[in-house]
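can u do me a favor
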């Protein structure tokens, strides 16, 4: 069993953050870095990365986090792909656990896990479980929690219309990936182990103030709950308002995102 850790980063400062991750050397593990908007000097690679034969760095010039993740995926060649950002900490044990899960569960195509660190109000299922429609109550997935067999990549990729830097839906590329995988009939399963450390709040932990993030949330709600998305969007706006958000701002952009085609 082999594993590619597909790291999405951007700008010269992003590659320095990857170097600061102190990526552990693990047999069978390779780090695939998609370097979006790298600047003029793509040869300026930090020494912590340039001398390693288990790290590949691939410049990328299109927009959007979903597209950036797909560029990393294009350069992956291992059995399993683990999606990652440039501000994580892995141990050798974390990565071995991901490989062991897929080796011990040959019928699972996509696995979601947990991470260590500040999680705000994030809720996980109590036990290991399959992920269908709908997801377990109050559960949503983050990109850094997703791993999948590379063999499904010909059928499911990250939707380039979603993610930071996209035109309309500026978040949610991770949730859309899981929606598409389930729609295609792939077996998706949550496994309650921690596979990385992330310090600081994630996008889902913060009160929404960005029009693009609100629009993405509205669209994801419509995709996940096609029969009940309207009252769920109202509930989302109300919950955000209870946390200090602007209700009418949120409702406008949640609905704008729900009705948009993202182009």
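np, heres the sequence
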């Amino acid at each position: 069993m082999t594993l590619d850790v597909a790291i999405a980063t951007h700008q010269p400062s992003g590659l320095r953050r990857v170097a600061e991750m102190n990526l552990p050397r693990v047999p069978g593990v390779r780090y695939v870095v998609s370097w979006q908007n790298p600047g003029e000097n793509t040869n300026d690679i930090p020494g912590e990365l340039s001398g390693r034969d288990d790290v590949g760095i691939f410049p990328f010039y299109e927009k959007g986090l979903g597209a950036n993740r797909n560029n990393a995926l294009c350069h992956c060649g291992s059995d399993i792909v683990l999606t990652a950002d440039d501000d994580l900490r892995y141990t050798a044990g974390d990565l071995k656990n991901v490989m062991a899960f897929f080796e011990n569960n040959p019928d699972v195509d996509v696995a979601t896990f947990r991470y260590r660190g500040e999680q705000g109000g994030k809720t996980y299922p109590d036990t290991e479980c399959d992920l269908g429609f709908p997801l377990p109550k109050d559960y949503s997935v983050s990109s850094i929690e997703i791993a999948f067999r590379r063999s499904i990549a010909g059928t499911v990729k990250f939707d380039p219309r979603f993610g930071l830097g996209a035109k309309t839906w500026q978040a949610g590329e991770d949730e859309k990936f899981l929606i598409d995988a389930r729609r295609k009939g792939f077996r998706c399963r949550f496994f309650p182990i921690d596979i990385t450390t992330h310090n600081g709040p994630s996008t889902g932990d913060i009160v929404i103030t960005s029009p693009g993030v609100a629009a993405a949330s509205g669209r994801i709600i419509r995709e996940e709950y096609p029969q009940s998305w309207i009252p769920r969007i109202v509930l989302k706006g109300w919950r955000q308002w209870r946390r200090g958000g602007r209700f009418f701002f949120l409702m406008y952009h949640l609905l704008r995102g729900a009705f948009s085609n993202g182009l």
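The first helix runs from residue 11 to 20. hope that helps!!
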